[in-house]
Amino acid sequence: MTEESHRSPTGQPGADAGQGLWQACVEQLAQDLPEQQFNTWIKPLTAQVAEDFSKVTVLVGNRFKLDWIRAQYAGRIAALLEGLYGQSVTLELALAQREAIARTYVRPAAPEQSSTTALSEPSSGNNDETPAGAFRNRLNAALTFETLVEGTANRMARSAAMHVAGMPGHLYNPLFIYGGVGLGKTHLMHAVGNRLLADRPDAKVLYIHAEQFVSDVVKAYQRRTFDEFKERYHSLDLLLIDDVQFFANKDRTQEEFFNAFEALLAKKSHIVMTSDTYPKGLANIHERLVSRFDSGLTVAIEPPELEMRVAILINKARAESTEMPEEVAFFVAKNVRSNVRELEGALRKILAYSRFNQKEISIQLAREALRDLLSIQNRQISVENIQKTVADYYKIKVADMYSKKRPASIARPRQIAMYLAKELTQKSLPEIGELFGGRDHTTVLHAVRKISGERQQLTELNQQLHVLEQTLKG
Ligand SMILES: Nc1ncnc2c1ncn2[C@@H]1O[C@H](COP(=O)(O)OP(=O)(O)OP(=O)(O)O)[C@@H](O)[C@H]1O
């Protein structure tokens, strides 16, 4: 295919390690990107890795995809490869056709002009474009009670959820689970749905994120299909609805949800909800809905304690067919404290690093694999420092970080600073809100979600954030 497709003479580092590097990169992208994006754009890719790892040639199915990947993902892929390899890697994109024409260097130079070949649509095998009907219950079969580690932090929530799964429509209806990001709320919900379906395969179960519900309401409104909408939601046996704080300020949605809620409870169907705060802490949601939310059982999930973090790491490594020595799990658990999603990220880095370097997992290896993360903690980046750096970068006044001014030229850098404060410090959402002129934690959460979502789409923003992060980490 290309002239760089070397064979390793004596296996140093060799084709397998080269593919290991690419695999590690793909695995990281699988975690970082929304599933649909990953399946559509990244999964079909293959790569050739030069023997000395200096160059990775990613092969793409057609011209359209090549342009898209170059624009949307190439910078990120290159950065990941460099992060994993620890040295500069040149990334090339090439068509996966015999001629391998139109190679495009994306690093270090700016993207070249694409060739003049006519654009073609991506091949039709994009699963993500399958009609919504194909994902009827939207449950992830991997998220079960069996894969959820129990600890003090989630014991109450877990046992209430198991109770609901075993006897829906009885006690604890609705079940309202709240807690910070990445603590296993979504996992628990899916576990309820999966357990119920295992016992009663004919049960009508739906998992839905609150934002999707909002968009279903909007669609029903535009297309005047409220009958179908009602038929769909009011006929469920179990409704699992995630992150209901997203209903804030959406009056029409709240009304429809209220109707669905009443209909479901009347026919003894069960409702499980999650949120980032307890019902009375929800902002801009109608009182009658808030009191309904609180009318069953409300339970919190807390950040996992040390022993639980150790158990989670060991279990997750085992699920990847790897034994993580307890002392290493302890080292990681001591250093990664905030939530389970971050623990998973740390574990992934360690596994990738160990595979790629073909070394046993040890504390030393974990320290190397997590060097960025550990240095962040050691340097103790402060919110004030972030505000100052971001204000300088976007040429606004530091005082605008606390002000109530709303023009986009100010509001956006402020959101970026909030996002970085969440990412780079151990501060909670309310604490960050307080440091940004006494803003509500939901404002901070909104900013964090917005910027992290946009970061995956907008190359320019991603680069700016990268620069800011590097500056702050020193
Ligand atoms: N107790 C646990 N045992 C095993 N895995 C867990 C546990 N808690 C969380 N996880 C895993 O951590 C990741 C994050 O959990 P989840 O998505 O459920 O968090 P969340 O509380 O819904 O967060 P968010 O509010 O950000 O959506 C998932 O991959 C989940 O499987």
From TrEMBL:
Subcellular location: Cytoplasm
Superkingdom per UniProt: Bacteria
Domain AAA+ ATPase, chain residue ranges per copy: 171-305
Spans annotated as Domain IV, binds dsDNA: 355-474
Ranges of residues in domain Chromosomal replication initiator DnaA C-terminal: 382-451
Annotated segments matching region Domain I, interacts with DnaA modulators: 1-100
Region feature (Domain III, AAA+ region): 138-354
Free-text note on domains in this protein's UniProt record: Domain I is involved in oligomerization and binding regulators, domain II is flexibile and of varying length in different bacteria, domain III forms the AAA+ region, while domain IV binds dsDNA.
Name of protein: Chromosomal replication initiator protein DnaA
